[in-house]
Design a protein that fits this description.
This protein is of the alpha/beta class and 406 residues long. The protein has 17 helices and 13 strands. The longest helix is centred in the middle third of the chain and has 24 residues, at 177-200. It holds the Pfam family CoA_transf_3.
Length: 406
């Protein structure tokens, strides 16, 4: 019984931003009913390999991408292009508190599943639409893709190596950051709307746009530009105002060294046997190091390459110089702190094996999130939901199946 166990969410969304929001709500106990197209389901079910393996080693055809964003949900297959399917969804909406969708602007109105239509059957409904560019503005009809939004929204202009450096140029994030952050903002918006409804009894419409979120999340970079009028430049893994505050390659991998003051710089070069660099007036203070970074950084690079990643981490931690490794994901999940925090979870799966997932990172004393159910197989809960939520009998369900509605 989670904090949201009294809340039902009808999830009409696919791919990542909407499902990420729905999974977050499900982790806190909400009953999330995921509506999928019969036969194919969420696009991400097929975004593989890799796929989940059954105990005999065979692919289950459940793509790892899909598994990442759909635990704790119930899957119901409904063809919303049919009048009968639309009726089923409207009936489910009438029994729900929240509807999530990420269809193109105006598309669900054709099916009578837009906010105004569903509000007629559930006046206090909270309805959240997730699109690339929002419901208004000249781009509203455009399809929104995370990669495009990362570029359009400014993120890639400040991400990547500096111009003139090897590999210099704009770079996207390693995950769909606009999608994920939109899912998180949408979660906050839904919870806020639920709190408002609890006090007033009034539902509302939520308009979430990937571009809005991408712009908003640039945080201090936005403020730097708005205060100065100068767009920030790319610095790769370096810092515009602090030196050395960057990555270095060791003899067997990469580390991060984040020197925050002159004392830490001295300890860093002492650990590398280059104490004379701290006494050099070109490098003795941070402003001097910033001015002379092009001279200093190659000297530090050569120094760091002489020892291994583990040797440097041990030496710098002992000297209290902020540092850390750059781990691949095997190293991440082998990390003692990650293990101690229980970040990997294993849930039973209908294939007969288990599915390895990452737990919700929130820790709370009274209402912690929980992972209790595997990402559902396609249509796994169709009959159960039609019976338990809508009260359909076997004959009604059989009729819908005969018409290929569910």
């Amino acid at each position: 019984m989670g904090a949201l166990s009294h809340i039902r969410v009808l999830d009409l969304s696919r791919v990542l931003a909407g499902p990420w929001c729905a999974q977050t709500l499900a982790d806190f106990g909400a009953d999330v009913i995921k509506i999928e197209r019969p036969g194919t389901g969420d696009d991400t079910r097929h975004w593989g390999p890799p796929y989940l393996k059954a105990p005999d080693g065979a692919d289950t055809r459940e793509a790892a991408y899909y598994l990442a964003a759909n635990r704790n949900k119930r899957s119901v297959t409904v063809d919303i292009a049919t009048p009968e399917g639309q009726r089923v969804v409207r009936e489910l909406a009438a029994k729900s508190d929240v509807v999530l969708e990420n269809y193109k602007v105006g598309q669900l109105k054709r099916y009578g599943l837009d906010y105004e239509s569903l509000r007629a059957v559930k006046p206090d409904l909270i309805y959240c639409s997730v699109t690339g560019f929002g419901q208004t503005g000249p781009y509203a009809q455009r399809a929104g893709y995370d990669f495009i939004v990362q570029g359009l929204g400014g993120f890639m202009s400040i991400t990547g190596e500096r111009e003139g450096e090897p590999g210099g140029g704009p770079q996207k994030a390693g995950v769909a950051i606009a999608d994920l952050m939109t899912g998180m903002y949408a979660s906050v918006a839904v919870l806020t709307a639920l709190a408002h409804r609890e006090r007033t009894g009034v539902g509302q419409y939520i308009d979430m746009a990937l571009l809005d979120v991408q712009v908003a999340m640039l945080a201090n970079m936005n403020s730097n530009f708005l205060a100065s009028g100068t767009p920030p430049a790319r610095w790769g893994n370096a810092h515009p105002n602090i030196v050395p505050y960057q990555t270095f390659q060791t003899s067997d991998g990469w580390i991060i060294v984040a020197v925050g003051n002159d004392g830490q710089f001295r300890k860093f070069v002492e650990a590398g046997g280059r104490t004379e660099l701290a006494d050099d007036e070109r490098f003795s203070t941070n402003p001097a190091r910033v001015r002379n970074r092009d001279t200093l950084v190659p000297l530090l690079t050569a120094m760091v390459r002489l020892r291994s990643k583990r040797e440097w981490i041990d030496a710098l931690e002992a000297a209290q110089v902020p540092c850390g490794p750059i781990n691949d994901l095997r190293e991440v999940f082998d990390n003692e702190q990650v293990i101690a925090r229980g970040m990997q979870i294993d849930l039973p799966h209908p294939s007969g094996g288990t599915v390895k997932l990452v737990r919700n990172p929130v820790r709370m004393t009274e209402t912690p999130p929980r992972a209790v159910a595997h990402p559902p197989t396609l249509g796994e809960h169709t009959d159960d939901v039609l019976r338990s939520v809508l009260g359909y009998d076997d004959a009604q369900i059989a009729a819908l199946r005969a018409q290929q509605v569910v």
